Amino acid sequence: MADVTLTTPPDTPSRWTRFRDSDLLASFLSSKLTMVSALVTVVMILGAVFATWIAPTNPFDPASVDLMNSLFPPRWIEGGDPRFLLGTDNQGRDIWSAILYGMQVSLIIGIVGVIIAATLGIGLGLLAGYLGGRVDALIMRVADIQLTFPAILIALVIDGVVHAFFKGAPREQTAFGVLVVSIGLSFWVQYARTIRGSTMVEKNKDYVHAARLMGVPAPLIMLRHVLPNVIGPVLVILTINLALAIITEATLSFLGVGLPPTQPSLGTLIRIGNDFLFSGEWWIVAFPGVTLAVFVLAVNLLGDWLRDALNPKLR
């Protein structure tokens, strides 16, 4: 009788092992520019998250602001005060502290706005791609119409509608909602079109037909089976749109639709500093502007790397 040798199946590699040996990590480590961009992004996000502990003062607290300290230049320039690294603004607020807190506000608005846009776009894209027909035509025509309205115009319309319905509400209380809804309604089309195209391909595959034959309802098929297989490109759009959302918030705040000067974002700081640019107090607008530009550039570089790394044709 022949001997039967039993072999044990190889151990399944852990998630960390799979990630360590993945092409994505290898691509990341092979690009010094991408690593620098990731480092800059992480440092700036951590600075915004821990602004309460890092910032020397709270620029939003009137008790910590002294008008006698207004318009001090940066510390290394003649006339600067050692207490204020990047100088002060017209209200005596420390520019370094204001940038940290302003970055925090800009990130919150950008992240919430992108979440709204992604949720709306993914949901409508799934419906359009899976159901097709009139539903697809209706959603895509709405998307085409929405593309004709820029984010600035949408924000102005929403701001006007909000104050028409809530006449007693001050602008300071509605500014945050106006900004995040405007960003969400401006960016959902990209998600919808991307998800729609991928869903139209996935819905004709065998695993979707098998789920239909088993009697699985259409909503569950879209959420459990189709969505996990079409979500990849959305990660790239999320990364790039975060930078665009922060730029949009800065633009709207610069135009006066954003948050009030008492709770400034980066855009509000730039708008305030622009009033003093030609009088010689350049630091009020320069440092928030550089912060915004560096963060957006770093996030965009990460988005470009992620797009190339997830593209199988470039591997």
Automatic annotation (TrEMBL):
Any one annotated GO CC term: plasma membrane
Keywords noted in UniProt: Cell membrane, Membrane, Transmembrane, Transmembrane helix, Transport
Pfam families according to UniProt: BPD_transp_1, OppC_N
Record-annotated membrane-spanning stretches: 33-55, 107-133, 145-166, 172-191, 230-255, 282-306
Main location: membrane
Keyword Aminoacyl-tRNA synthetase set for record: no
Residue span(s) of domain ABC transmembrane type-1: 103-303
Localization in the cell: Cell membrane
GO biological processes: transmembrane transport
Keyword Secreted in annotation: no
Topological relation to the membrane, as annotated: Multi-pass membrane protein
Superkingdom classification of source: Bacteria
Family from the record: Belongs to the binding-protein-dependent transport system permease family.
Protein name, as recorded: ABC transporter permease
